[in-house]
Every structure is written in C-alpha cells, then in structure tokens.
Write a structure and sequence with these properties.
Chains A, B: It is an enzyme of class 2 (transferase). Chains A, B: One of its GO terms (biological process) is rRNA base methylation. The structure is a homodimer. By secondary structure, chain A is of the alpha/beta class. In chain A, 32% of the residues lie in helices and 26% in strands. The first copy, chain A, has two domains: 3-68, Beta Barrel (Ribosomal Protein L25, Chain P), CATH 2.40.240.20; 77-243, SPOUT methyltransferase, trefoil knot domain (Alpha/beta knot, 3-Layer(aba) Sandwich). Chain A is built from eight helices and eleven strands. In chain A, the strands form two sheets. In chain A, strands 8-7-6-10-9-11 form a six-stranded parallel beta sheet. Chain A has a five-stranded mixed beta sheet with strand order 1-3-4-5-2. In chain A, a hairpin with a 5-residue loop joins strand 3 and strand 4. In chain A, helix 2 (89-99) runs parallel beside helix 3 (121-138) and helix 6 (178-185) crosses helix 8. Chain A is elongated. Chains A and B meet through helix 2 and helix 8 of A and helix 2 and helix 8 of B.
C-alpha cells in the first residue's frame, strides 16, 4: 500500500486539497477512486490506513479505517557526513541511505572534494529532499531523513553521542574492531555520526581535526569502497548489529 | 595505483600489445609513459607492481619492480541470485556487489519479473562483465566476479554449501536471526548462496521450491528494501560478520 507523510495530527478523516503533493500523487498518478486505500503517517508517527469516500477535482475525502504503530526505525539515530558526489551518485546514495534507515545526511565540502554545488545548492537541496521523501515512503519508514549542507566547521560541531570516521588507512592497517565496538555501544536513541571522505580520501589534517572533535578511526574491511558505497556498508552494519539479534 | 587483471603467469616483465584492453586503458586513457606504474594481478592471484620501460604505438614494455600478496577476498564465496532489474539498476547493482566482494551473480527470471532481456541477453552479459571488471579493478580485488543468466531450475541446482532466501514475509514475522546464524556458520571457502525476489516479491510457490532445495528463510530487518538494495545489505552483513572481528 502506498504510504504518505501527512506531518499533521490525524483523527477520523483526512481531506486532501488540489495543489497538495499528496493530492497530486494519490489522485492523479495513482488515480485514487472511492474505495482506494493508502497509509498516512501522522505527526506523532502513528500509521493510519485511509479509504477514499469521495473524489472530485478539488478534494479527496478519506475515512480512517485502521490505525497501528510500527517500529521500523533504527534504534540509533544515524547521521551520515559525506562530500558532494559526482553525477547522479548523490541521488542514489540518498535513496539507498534512506531505505537503510538514515536519520540525517550532511553534505560537507572537504579538501579533496571536486564537486562544487555553490550555485545550484538550493535546487539540489530541493531535489534531494524529494528523493528522500519518496524513498522513505517506499521503504515504509515513519520519518523522512533530513538533509543539510554544512561547512566543515559547522559539521564538526554538530550534535552527536558517538562519532567515527571511515578511513581507508585504518583498514589498510588492519583495524577491524572499531565499527562493531562503536555501533554496539552507542545507547538507543542517541546520535551516531559517521564521516566519509570524498573520492580522493580525507587528508591527514582533516582526520586529525576529526579526532580532536571526538571521532574515532574505523576500518570497513579489506576492499576499497567508493565514497557512496562505504556509507551504505555502514548503514547495513548498524542494522545487522542492532536489529538482527 | 591502477590495477589490471592479466589472467596470465607473470615473471619479470609484462608486454602489452596494441588492441589489448589493458594497452588501450593504460596507454591511451591513462597515457602511460616511461616510469608510469600500475599493478597487475596474475593468474595465481599474486599482485605485481610494474613500471613502464618503453612505450610506442604497438607495445608497452613493463618491468616488474615489486610483488606482493594481499588478502582482500571475502572468506566465503558469495553467490547472489537476483531477478533482472529495470533501467540502470542492474548496472549499479553489479558495480556495488563487486565492490562489496561478491563471487558470482546469477540473473534468473522469476514469476513476478517484469524485465525481459531475451533478445539483448548477449549484449547485456558483455556489458555486465565489463562493469564487474572495472569495479573489481577499482576495489583492488583479486578476482572478477562471474555473471551468469540461468533458468530458475538451473539456479535451484547450482552448487552451494548454504542457501538462504531473503523474504519480506519473514521480516514481517519478526525473523531476525537466520542471516547472522547462516553467515556465521558457513565454513570458509564454501559457497554461500542468497536468493532475492524481484520488485513484486517472490511467490509462495517459489519460496516453497527454494525451501525444498535447502534454502532457509531470512529477514533483513524491519524496513522494506528495494530489490537491488537487499543484496547490498546482505553483502555488507557478510563482511561485518566475517571480516570485522
């Protein structure tokens, strides 16, 4: 069943007005008619199953026929910090990270970042938010991950309980235990922040800075993962270690 | 450093001839000149660092200046079975699965598969092999994963030590331990085979058939993962559970 984020309280009925994104998708793309059903997430993260009782060109009226709670969010709040990525790699990174349960994505320009979004930043952000929303609906999540563009310094000062840096050199040195240790020890509902370098990697200076700000170095296994693959590996690791036992 | 698969024994020197793929990439794309270096993997999976001693339009002559062994392959041989996927999703699935260490990818048409490659199968296979090779070079792996198109019946009879099916219904029933159990118990160097359904999911009949052929049902956590994301989650899980301790 299609899921929509209403971001409002829901009681017995839902009214969708023309012009609204959900009206457009449910009414025009899915051609909702009397009897059509969909799921709506309220601002209190409850799920309401709604059934269409009337449709016209201006309004879709929906009755709530069921309500339930579903625990599909990761037990820790994961913030992923990545460099802007080339071509459509940012798009699908956002889609996949959202499916895998990310809470917040921070794009930060790093020393070896080669992509410059300066002028298109607002357009990019709008696009990325749409991708995250569609992916969250598709994965049947309760929240849409937030996406931010921060400076390196703002990122360093972002709130976190535990921070790690995925660093290739750590992997090369055979560091294999930090990711598991950090993921296993972060308390539920706390923020787990993971920083990934751009294609060319983080500089030593950047890694030093991150360590001063409380980030630990972690290896992600012996193979070299691309900038957009390493965060997906990490998201999967967090799910395996926190949800599959 | 760029890595190439030579698939031949290497002793003291390497000669690349015009027309050869490696000649084209190293010579023309990377414009190798005297002193340029690259890594070459021999048929015995040893890595040789080579330095160019002469280049002309017909031949690149390379001297071996170093040799080493590197253990970057997953300790178990993972075979992923997936349905043909829409648009470019197959392409990037192959790239990511290769980075994450897959040994073999089997494409099989399933009951709810909507993509039909019948006529383009040879072209697709050629393209997929190139993607796998480039990703294996980039990830600094020692082998290029093999890619096969098999019928459902051929797939069921493929060799394996342990087989699991990622099934959404298992996840919905709260099954959370089979993946970890199966990954932890498969002996090193044995074949671990994982079957994933198409976008619409596997049918009950298909799941029954897989169980008769020795596959166990496994859930991949509470969120709904797309057909191409679930295998990447599984590959990451295998690495975390077998390589990160």
């Amino acid at each position: 069943m299609q899921r929509y984020f209403l971001n409002k309280p829901i009681i017995d009925t839902i009214k969708l007005k023309a012009g609204n994104d959900i009206f457009n998708h449910f009414g025009k793309v899915l051609r909702a008619k009397v009897g059509s059903k969909a799921e709506f997430v309220s601002d209190s993260l409850e799920i309401f199953v709604g059934e269409v009782v009337s449709v016209d060109s201006e309004t879709i009226n929906i009755n709530v026929i069921n309500q339930y709670h579903s625990d599909v969010e990761l037990p820790v709040q994961v913030t992923l910090v990545v460099s802007p990525l080339k071509n459509d790699r940012s798009d699908w990174f956002i889609q996949k990270a959202t499916e895998l349960g990310v809470n917040k994505i921070i794009f930060t320009s790093m020393k070896r970042t080669v992509v410059d979004w300066q002028k298109q930043q607002d357009k990019k952000l709008k696009r990325f938010k749409k991708i995250a929303q569609a992916a969250a609906e598709q994965a049947h999540r309760l929240i849409i991950p937030s996406i931010e563009f921060l400076t390196w310094q703002e990122m360093l000062l972002s709130p976190k309980h535990t921070g790690i840096v995925a660093w290739e050199e750590s992997a090369r040195d055979g560091e294999t235990s930090m990711l598991i240790k950090a993921v296993s020890e972060v308390p539920s509902d706390e923020i787990f922040m993971v920083v990934f370098g751009p294609e060319g990697g983080l500089t030593e200076t950047e890694v030093d800075k991150l360590q001063i700000h409380g980030f630990s170095l972690a290896g992600l296994g012996p193979r070299i993962l691309r900038a957009e693959t390493a965060p997906l590996y990490t998201m999967s690791a967090i799910s395996v270690l926190r949800e599959l036992r």
